[in-house]
Amino acid sequence: MNQLDSSSQESEKKHQPSPRLAAHLGELQIRLIISALSFGFCLLLFMGIGNHLSAWMKIPLQRAVNGLDLPKEQMTRLTEWNVLDPIGGLVALLKVSFYFALAMSLPVLLHQLWQFIRPGLWEHERRAVRPVLVPVTLLFIAGGLVGFFYASPLALRFLIQYNLWIGVENQWTASSVISLVQTISIGFGIAFELPIALLLLGKIGIISSRQLRQNRRVAILISFILGAIFTPPDPATQIMMAGILLALYEVGILLVRISERKKTSAIIQTNPFEGAHSTSGKTYTENYESDNLMCEDECDL
Prior knowledge:
The protein is mainly α.
């Protein structure tokens, strides 16, 4: 009997999670609860001011209609919200509230994510990630604003003109317009994170500015593919996103290059052999610099 009890106790101990894993899961639960409460509060807040959000979400459509040579009645009809079912207005309000709640709660969400993954990072990885938390939020909001005020009106104007050209009357629902504006705005918000992503990968040592310069042609292809994914099927918006991605790619190369120079300077300050010469007659630092710049002229388009 005692043997059975001891064996059952041993089996229970084996199936119990380790204290470290239990603490990790508890930490994850706390972070998820705080994130959910933050997002939920913002969602309820914006749902309470749904009338103001509705007027705000009409801005891209109004900017798209302005300047078009259309009868006044048709322009008025285009800028009015339409629903096709009893809950259409509620669904549209939920979409708008979700978009604004995500933007407002993003700093809290990123902070909770950072607090959860920080203990598992090395010190140099922490130093690389910590300074970019605020720029990540600001760049996402900046990209969303560009998508909202510029890319969305451009796409909507193209679609209005194309539908008129093929003889189709534009009678859009509020939910469809909001979904289109959300997709474009969030897509541009994500695209604006490209320089930060490249900088982090460069600091960790996964990529270098030399590799980025060598792969410019691949970056051009990927930029147009992403432009086709995150934008409606109109060439103007796709080219706009592709151009922004390429510009941000160049900014990322510059940031990675600056980070490499800082790392080189730190090595020079701490390396007692910084003035030593290699077999080529140059210092090791000069060899590093020349090797990193070797393909600069060859890689430029």
